């Protein structure tokens, strides 16, 4: 007689065999022109068709079309013929060096198609996860000098609405296809595009693993006015060697906020290329740039000088803030291999003092004042005792950015890219020293581009591509609005926010470093509120989730570290009460929650610095009514009693 555990193993073995046979049957076509591959849970389906020399894909969820038959190709004006197919699958987990999760599940089914392109040999990979898909080509044999174009259509419903980042302006959207077709001037859409579907599903269109193919440049999206479809392309001139394209990615989630924590782009990225990443540490960072001109109660005025930087370092050491960033104007001129440092700054003294205090330094550089030489730049920064580089105004140049990341890693430098850089989705897995980037509008420049509504749009659109350097966390809102800062808003009284909202934004926007833009004294005046930011274990999260969100209206995000939860919520220009159900807590356990809240008197312009803090006991399932002022926010620090 068979034992129970033997019978169990027998059932599991033959159940898996049946599933594999089903997948193989689904992927193999009777006429070698139609192929199907499903997600591991069977809810997503991708159909591939090869007809009249073209390859098309279609995406379905539970039998309903999300993307109708759409062309995909790699060599322009070349007929495609699928010759063979095979199936792969994987179900493993991996641990990122830092991130929104301490462990990520990589579970997919993959269809691999051998494609003949009039003599050129390629493979088309179709990888299907439970919440997204990826398409990529590998070109194995072709003529040197071939012009490649990774072209992909998105045949969407006419009722779908589109959103897109818009550099340092408010993100575009909602835009309908009819709106885009009727516009006299073509709207330039960039990744990640968010598609809001009438059937409640949300999509995001982007790419991942550009590191594998920097020859292709940044993905471009256009509107095909003839076919009335959205399309994307990457072009490259090939050098005769086998090459793998980036992944074309489609994320699929019912709730729009889940697109921000979707791990498909990371799973598609090349694994870490850094053998020993122990020197890479996420954290919080003070920043000098926005503090210039701030006057303290003891008569000191912050500027670009040794005394100001010593104050920053002392405060960072006292509050457990890991980094201090020295921004532009610390140097006046650059020549090959040499920086001319401003006469008021003793950089060597500042570096030595920071090391003594246990504070790491990051240093800014761009090419506007001369060329140091990138081949020596990173080694020089390391020799100065720097732990990172903020690279400004390099432009959206893929090969240059890829090289900068790799050279930084060789010299043990974190790298933060400024001013609308290459999105490079997934690069933080491949090179975890790529700690953040300003792929958004950072605070305090043009207020027209940074309002409570716009913040929420960026948190639900720009943030999908990866970590953002947005510089949230201003506390001296009245002082900033009065125009006393040298680098404040261009128009006074246009900063619409509350101090609690600023704290919540620091949690909501995910980054490897939280860059804090205000003066140490501004934080010290509200030390009880600053406590929430102090306690954030930046980049060390075990779990992250968007609890509730609505485009342009509100967002509520929760992140867990061990048994402790941090929750941050913000609203747009309208005051509101948001019901937050604490269903994510453990059963039969009592928790202490500290609330950081707007008050009845708080208002994003009239009274932005009014707040209250209180503590109570709660349990799983409790519903917290988060009351937020206009432009306001709400925070919770939850830990076991």
Structure description:
Keywords: Calcium, Hydrolase, Signal. GO terms for molecular function: hydrolase activity. Monomer. The chain is α+β, with helices and mostly antiparallel strands. The protein has 2 domains: 4-268, Beta-galactosidase, Chain A, domain 5; 283-640, Aldolase class I (TIM Barrel, Alpha-Beta Barrel), CATH 3.20.20.70. 20% of the residues lie in helices and 35% in strands. The strands form 6 sheets. Strands 5, 6, 7, 8, 10, 11, 12, 13, 16 and 17 form a 10-stranded antiparallel sheet that branches. A 7-stranded antiparallel sheet has the order 1-2-3-4-9-15-14. Helix 4 (306-319) packs parallel to helix 5 (347-357) and helix 6 runs parallel beside helix 7 (398-410). The longest helix has 24 residues, at 4-27. It is globular. The model is unreliable at 1-31 (pLDDT under 50).
Low-pLDDT stretches are 1-31
Shape, please? globular
Any idea what the CATH architecture of the largest domain is?
Alpha-Beta Barrel
What does the radius of gyration come to?
26 Å
The class by helix and strand makeup works out as alpha+beta
Into which percent range does the helicity of residues fall? 10-25%
Look at the structure and give the CATH class of the largest domain.
Alpha Beta
